[in-house]
Amino acid sequence: MKKVALLRGVTPVGKNKIPKMSYLVEILTEVGLTSVQTYIQSGNIICETDLANEQLSQLIHQTIKEKIGAELAVIITNQSELAQAIAENPFGEDYDSSRIHLVFTNNKINREKLNELLHQDFGDEKLCQRSQCLYLYLPRDAQKKKLNTNFLEKRLDITATMRKLSVVSRLSEMKNR
């Protein structure tokens, strides 16, 4: 089955840097994943595997830690879930699509904590939830800049990663090479 792994915490420099995406493809192929592809340097991986999501997450995490030295959380989803997330985007044409971000987690989100956040006023920034993920609208001129992955992780006690709508759209459409 085709799965999508979203790495949390990839940095352009430092200990969580992935030197080359081609090397990432190589080491993940060596541990048994097939049709491995990456998309942009921030750590988006598509592969074929029969492993359960939790097993795949652990395998990718451990492989990267051992071979590259980076300590990265791995969020697992698939292309149909990404396509559903795009279809459920709550922000219409009045919103700048380049400022729409989707937040994914493998953790169960505490309903009470989430409802509290969903009803909080973030000014120009917006937070919404649908079946596959959380959605953030982060306008360039927002004064607070409060909504981000770190804030959501702390408030919701989860591990999460954020991707722009355009990246999620591309990942949902990628075909095997």
Can you walk through the features of this model?
This protein is an alpha+beta fold. The chain has 2 domains: 2-77, Alpha-Beta Plaits; 84-173, Alpha-Beta Plaits, CATH 3.30.70. The protein is built from 6 helices and 8 strands; from the N terminus they run E-H-E-E-H-E-H-E-H-E-E-H-E-H. It has helices spanning 21-30, 53-67, 79-87, 111-118, 149-156, 165-173; strands at residues 2-8, 34-39, 44-48, 73-77, 100-105, 126-129, 134-137, 160-164. It is globular and about 45 Å long. The model has no long low-confidence stretch (mean pLDDT 94).
How much β-strand is present in the residues? 15-25%
> What is the succession of H and E elements?
EHEEHEHEHEEHEH
Q: The biggest beta sheet, please?
A: 4 strands, antiparallel
- Report the strand count: 8
| Secondary-structure content class | alpha+beta
Give the SSE layout:
Blueprint: E1 2-8, H1 21-30, E2 34-39, E3 44-48, H2 53-67, E4 73-77, H3 79-87, E5 100-105, H4 111-118, E6 126-129, E7 134-137, H5 149-156, E8 160-164, H6 165-173
Antiparallel strand pairs: 1-3, 1-4, 2-3, 5-7, 5-8, 6-7
Helix pairs in contact: 3-6
Which tags fit this structure?
177 residues, Alpha-Beta Plaits, 2 domains, 8 strands, 24% strand
